[in-house]
Amino acid sequence: MNEVVVMGVGTLRFGRWPNKSVIEMAEVPIEIALKDSGIPFKDIQAAYVGSELGHFPDARMIVQNFGWTGIPISQMQQACASGSAAFREAYFSVASGRYDVVLVAGYEKMGKGLIPGGVPEQDKEYHLHYMGLDVTPARIAMAIKRRMLTYGDTAEMLAAEAAQCFEYGPLNPYAHNQKKYTAADVLASPMICSPITLLMSCPISDGASAAIICSRKKAKQYGDSRAITVAGSFAGTPDYNDLMGGPGPHIGGDFKGGKLTARVSKEAYEKIGIGPEDIKIVQCHAPFAGGGFICIEALGYCREGEGGKWFLEGKTKIDGQVAVNTDGGLIARGHPLGATGVAEIGELVRQLRGEGGALQIPNKPKVAMAHNVGLGCLNLHILKK
Amino acid sequence: MSENVAGAEKMTIPLQEGLFEMGSDGKYHLVASRCKSCKLTFFPKRKYCGKCGSADVEVFNLSDRGKVYTFSQVDRKSVYTIIEPPYMEADVEMPEDVHIYTILDQCDLKSVDFGMNVEVYVDKVKQDEAGNDVIAFKFKPAA
Ligand SMILES: [Zn+2]
């Protein structure tokens, strides 16, 4: 496999963009990423675009907006992990030697209200939709509720995770939420699915993000002093043992107990020859408070049941034992499905370069992890300076 | 469109086929499948075992009672639902070692707790255009 590097990253501020088409939205981060990489669009040999709710011509129109260069353009749909799925396929297309310079983009324009876990007419288990059993926050709420019994997780721990997101969101120019909420604000906000409150949930955001990746060999021609290596790309879907409440399309990512995250990260650690002690910064997929607990436990940072305590004690802060969701995470940065995975890569590239601004973690990280879960799938990327 | 013919008998239609059936005892029971080789049980029933992929599965009725494994009170309405919030969603652990997502009804929402004994029942959830009763399974505190 050829060494693959990230040459440029870009993000359109997450928020609401009612007057922009998805083509105009995606134009912003692609322009920034191209400029950041020093690579002209005409050199791009292939493009991978991630989106869950997009329409079939979107990807081509987004890329052809920069020129009809005749390159192959692929669209990846993998729920909340669509962006990291695009990054993954782009990575393998360069690692395999098929291409040298590839564009990755992720975008989403969201509707209003809760996202349904599927469409009744297309689902085998459509009764779940009609019976109100496809509510994503209810799935994690039930998992957290069970943790409260098993491990003694508390509402204060959940509030601590959300408040950490709201501490960093206002320092991230790309974050949807620019307001600083305290743990008390989080606890006082309306209950959505007990014990998850409104401010423990990701907002509904539009957004777009992009990255330019390149083979190391080709990168040298452009100047690779700021290039960040992609050390590995790993993925999986739950096995029968990970299911909660029976199988079906609505198993909700990795909410049961992080078994999928544990399995895929173990593979990553073994293949790359590193461990959690080597990775001081993680962008993890936590659309609802408590998601971070499950993640840091499954990734091996702490023992099962200790995750909530870690957030409460600030061990997950920028200057903590592992910096988690330094850009505000899904709860404050926002979660426009397809844009999330590529935005995670963007934040980590800036951190590894030392260009993290007000959010730069102090210990000069050398390795970083991007963890992105969709409904029933996971993509995990390790980046290295 | 659908017009009610005078004297036409109203039917009872399941919201989704295959989830429950009327037993010889005149009661509805949930229908699950069990793999003959790895013995794993799945609900809803599967044509292929979810673990080993074998099509050699037996279909059988689950017990009518289970225990609340976990739960959450839902206060927001999702797009397609015909159930009005607030309602209680629960994950019920069945004696056959399978978990079921369900609505927990006919109970005081505040009284729901881990390990609570609950039983399955079938309830009318809506009326279709032809005036037929549409039924679905739910759980309620065991008598
Ligand atoms: Zn089997």
List the helices and strands and how they pair.
The complex is a heterodimer of chains A (385) and B (143).
Chain A: E1 4-15, H1 22-37, E2 46-50, H2 58-64, E3 73-76, H3 82-95, E4 101-108, H4 127-130, H5 136-150, H6 155-168, H7 183-188, E5 191-193, E6 196-197, E7 206-215, H8 216-222, E8 228-236, H9 259-272, E9 281-283, H10 291-298, H11 307-312, E10 323-324, H12 329-332, H13 337-353, E11 367-374, E12 377-384
Parallel strand pairs in A: 2-3, 2-4, 9-10, 9-11
Antiparallel strand pairs in A: 1-7, 1-8, 4-7, 5-6, 8-12, 11-12
Helix pairs in contact in A: 1-2, 3-13
Chain B: E1 12-14, E2 20-22, E3 28-35, E4 41-42, E5 57-61, E6 65-74, E7 87-94, E8 98-104, E9 117-127, E10 133-141
Parallel strand pairs in B: 1-10
Antiparallel strand pairs in B: 2-3, 3-4, 3-5, 6-7, 6-9, 7-8, 9-10
Bound molecules: zinc ion.
Q: Could you give the distance between the termini of chain B?
A: 43 Å
Strand content of chain A: 15-25%
The assembly state of the depicted protein chains is heterodimer
Order of helices and strands of chain B: EEEEEEEEEE
Number of strand segments of chain A: 12
Mean pLDDT of chain A: 93
Chains forming the largest contact? A-B, 38 and 40 residues
Radius of gyration of chain B: 17 Å
Query: Ranges of chain B with pLDDT <50 over ≥5 residues?
Result: none
Order of helices and strands of chain A: EHEHEHEHHHHEEEHEHEHHEHHEE
Largest sheet of chain B: 6 strands, mixed
Inertia-based shape of chain B: globular
Estimate nothing, just give the exact number of structural domains of chain B: 1
Structural class of chain B: mainly beta
**Tally of helical runs of chain B:** 0
Helix content of chain A: 25-40%
Kindly name the structural category of chain A.
Answer: alpha/beta
Mean pLDDT rating of chain B: 92
**What molecules are bound to this protein?**
zinc ion
Counting DSSP H or I runs of 4 or more residues, the number of helices of chain A is 13
Q: Radius of gyration of chain A from the CA trace?
A: 19 Å
